[in-house]
Amino acid sequence: MNSWDVSLACLLVGMIAISLLSNVVVLICFLYSPDIRKQVPGLFILNLTCCNLLMTVVNMPLTLAGMLNKQQPGGDRLCHIVGFLETFLTTNSMLSMAALSIDRWVAVVFPLSYHSKMRYKDAALIVGYTWLHSISFPTAALSLSWLGFHHLYASCTLYSKRHEERVPFSVFTGVFHALSFLLSFVVLCFTYLKVLKVARFHCKRIDVITMQTLVLLVDIHPSVRERCLEEQKRRRQRATKKISTFIGTFLLCFAPYVITRLVELSYVGPISYHWGVLSKCLAYSKAASDPFVYSLLRHQYKKCWKDILNRILKRGSINSSGLTGDSHSQNILQITE
């Protein structure tokens, strides 16, 4: 093994550890807090977390074994099962992120009708659709024998060994990525840009009130005035940073792998093995980053985990009033704070 192989193996081991720990923490918070469980986004986060955990304990270790041994881990039947799971879990994760963005869009843009438009039953139907959508492609690939070990990515995934099936397999792969990666990306961009527009509108309203207050308070200390103006500037930047994080992590993690798959099918020349494995590791890194992007950095999950730690340490929680549900004002504050 050269230095590239060692570096990629260490990178994947680190991602397995982070992904396993962070997703387990999210799952514990969901099971511990009844307020998190009763919220509609909690169902989407649960679905996403379960997909990430399965990817972490099944697909990532076998890809690591494929990297270290430079060959297929296990027999063909195991590889077909793993390839089926990877295709299903990846698509389900992407669609779950799209569902979360739709929920945030409805909550912020249509606050008065949110509880009638996005009920728990509606969320369950959306999750059911993501499962049907996600399972259709690996089922078709399995029936056509288009699942196997791909040496370029050191993993069991969509793969056809027969040269005469190159054209239909290329069309199938293109449609699969269009209805998984591209569809989710378009939904993310549409919904979060709408949310950003509403957040900026509220920031402008707050800015107007702040400026009017500063004008009226002529005796205010200059340092207080400067802090108000600085907070006003930070408020405008927070919404953009959060939206950029949601869309940017999705694009950064999945785009290199998807583009490499499409280039591989249309490009005659060889593609670097190390780049193929690196693009696969980037796709896996989404499972490690999702808990922080969507859950653990939110105040509600921080409070829940601190309460769990306090109970474990037998100190009790300082604030035991419980976690409150998200309202429209909380959704706006989550975007702007």
Description:
Strands 1-2 form a two-stranded antiparallel sheet. Helix 4 (76-109) packs parallel to helix 7 and helix 7 (166-216) runs antiparallel to helix 8. The model is unreliable at 316-327 (pLDDT under 50). It starts with a helix and ends with a helix. It contains eleven helices and two strands. It has a domain at 3-183 and 253-302: Up-down Bundle (Rhopdopsin 7-helix transmembrane proteins), CATH 1.20.1070.10. It is mostly helical. It is globular.
Key attributes of the depicted protein:
two-stranded antiparallel sheet, G protein-coupled receptor activity, Rhopdopsin 7-helix transmembrane proteins, 337 residues, mainly alpha, membrane
Helix content: over 70%
Strand content: under 5%
Main beta sheet, described?
2 strands, antiparallel
Shape: globular
* CATH class category name of the domain at 3-183 and 253-302: Mainly Alpha
What does the secondary structure layout of this molecule look like, with pairings?
Blueprint: H1 3-32, H2 34-38, H3 40-69, H4 76-109, H5 114-117, H6 120-143, E1 147-150, E2 155-158, H7 166-216, H8 222-266, H9 273-296, H10 299-312, H11 328-336
Antiparallel strand pairs: 1-2
